[in-house]
Write a structure and sequence with these properties.
With about 450 residues, the protein is α/β, with parallel strands linked by helices. The chain contains 14 helices and 14 strands. The strands form four sheets. A seven-stranded mixed β-sheet has the order 2-3-1-4-14-5-10. Strands 12-11-13 form a three-stranded antiparallel β-sheet. Strands 6-9 form a two-stranded antiparallel sheet. A hairpin with a 2-residue loop joins strand 2 and strand 3. Helix 5 packs parallel to helix 7 and helix 6 packs antiparallel against helix 7. The longest helix is centred in the first third of the chain and has 23 residues. It is globular and about 60 Å long.
Length: about 450
């Protein structure tokens, strides 16, 4: 699948006003080329000091030889064609290596917990910054295309390959870590970790085997503007012979529980992304895709079956909350009205059950394409994982409790995905038992 719409974004991503940082020897890389906000965090250390956190996590996971090898091959490339091959292979190789490591097929790679999603994130940034500052002897007219190809491959978007036949097919998406300033530079995203655990797995369901394909999304508004969600899910849905039966967007949500979200809303609340960019307003359409003009989209996941799945470490809740603006003629003005029934015709979304950040938007966009393609038989919805938190010691990159929580969350995501992959029918929502506003306000990143 091609994400050509992302080229303008990758060519002009938001930059920080600070000087750029070097990524390799100046003989091959021009360190005066500015880096993105995300890339500049590669030099961030913990407040207590120590090595730069991102590169250290890459080293502990045994991915530093891969990163160094790609940089070497970039410097050795003598033609644009060879460089394109290096970059494309690098993205695909990084994703496959991260998946293999996460699923235990690469025990030779480092000492860090194999469930840790952070090395993939930071290795991607190391290589995107190198590609951005790469200064070969020949002109590079298509640097944006190279950046897009690498990013696409390193997120698994070129790796979605479902089998033919009657096998059930499940497509899921996770997210990068976010809120990475201060001690947050250590943050891991259990949704991203779960995606790595699920990619390529065959789940044993009561309806027979189900094959899962996973991708990982950036926590960047601009990528969503350019259609990364539609390109991922829409491309899979358009493949009639291998179309997924179930779509599950996954992100980190509330402390201490899983939430299956009933509603996704068409509103952005402005919480800053990983490039420190804030966006407020309606969710824009994605160019080139059929999509209905709707304010809310309801889940079609078999949530009752998911709620009845074998118990894990955390309770599972069906969250029916949503919020609307009090005056439909003036969205964004006034205090949102939060309820747990169903949106009425003409009401304007202020928040879905999953908030008004990129997690809500991933559900909204994936299922807007599903509806636009008239694939009402495909189940789709969003799963919020519990908040993982950080290692207890503010000077530590990891600890046993931190790792245990992430493993428990990922294991329960596999259980819930297995339940969702079973053949489903219409379900009746249970009565809500939680205050709608309390449900929304408990979400990090929700701005009402």
């Amino acid at each position: 699948m091609r994400l050509t719409a992302l080229l303008p974004l990758l060519a002009a991503v938001p930059l920080f006003a600070f000087p750029a940082v070097a990524t390799a020897s100046p003989g091959c890389f021009d360190t005066s080329v500015p880096l993105t906000v995300e890339e500049q965090r590669l030099t961030a250390t913990l407040p207590a000091g120590g090595p730069a956190v991102g590169p250290e996590l890459v080293r502990l996971a045994g991915l530093d030889p891969l990163v160094a090898g790609v940089k070497h091959d970039l410097c050795a490339a003598r033609t644009p064609r060879r460089a394109e091959r290096v970059v494309t292979q690098a993205g695909d190789r990084l994703w496959r290596t991260a998946v293999d490591r996460a699923q235990g097929r690469r025990p030779d790679l480092g000492t860090l917990d194999r469930f840790d999603d952070r090395p993939l994130y930071w290795a991607r940034l190391q290589l995107s910054s190198a590609l951005r500052q790469w200064a070969p002897a020949f002109p590079v007219p298509e640097r944006a295309s190279l950046l897009a190809a690498f990013d696409r491959g390193s997120r698994g978007l070129d790796d979605v390959r479902f089998p033919l036949g009657k096998t059930r097919r499940v497509m899921v998406s996770g997210f990068d870590p976010f809120q990475l300033d201060g001690t947050g530079v250590r943050i891991s995203n259990p949704a991203g970790a779960s995606a790595l655990q699920l990619d390529g797995r065959v789940l044993d369901t009561p309806s027979g085997p189900a094959v899962v394909q996973a991708v990982s999304f950036p926590v960047v508004w601009g990528y969503f503007d350019e259609g990364i969600v539609e390109a991922a899910y829409g491309s899979a849905l358009r493949d009639r012979a291998r179309r997924p039966d179930v779509l599950i967007t996954i992100s980190q949500g509330r402390p201490g529980r899983f939430d299956i979200e009933r509603w996704a809303g068409a509103w952005r609340g402005g919480f800053p992304d990983n490039n420190n960019v804030s966006v407020t307003g309606g969710v824009p359409p994605a160019a080139g895709w059929p999509q209905p003009d709707v304010q809310f989209i309801e889940t079609t996941l078999p949530y009752q079956r998911m709620l009845a799945a074998p118990a894990g470490a955390y309770p599972v809740n069906f969250n029916q909350s949503f919020c609307v603006w009090p005056d439909s003629a003036h969205p964004g003005a006034g205090t949102p009205v939060c309820r747990a029934d169903a949106p009425a015709a003409g009401e304007i979304a202020a928040s879905g059950g999953g908030g008004n950040y990129l997690s809500n938007e991933s559900m909204f966009r994936a299922n807007r394409i599903r509806l636009g393609l008239n694939l009402t038989s495909v189940a789709g919805g969003h799963l919020h994982t519990p908040v993982l938190g950080e290692p207890t010691d503010p000077a530590a990159l990891t600890d046993p409790a931190f790792e245990s929580r992430r493993q428990a969350i990922a294991a329960q995501v596999v259980t819930l995905a297995t339940a969702a992959a079973s053949t489903s029918g219409p379900e009746t929502p249970p009565q809500a038992t939680e205050s709608p506003r309390a449900a929304l306000e408990s979400l990090p990143g929700t701005v009402l």
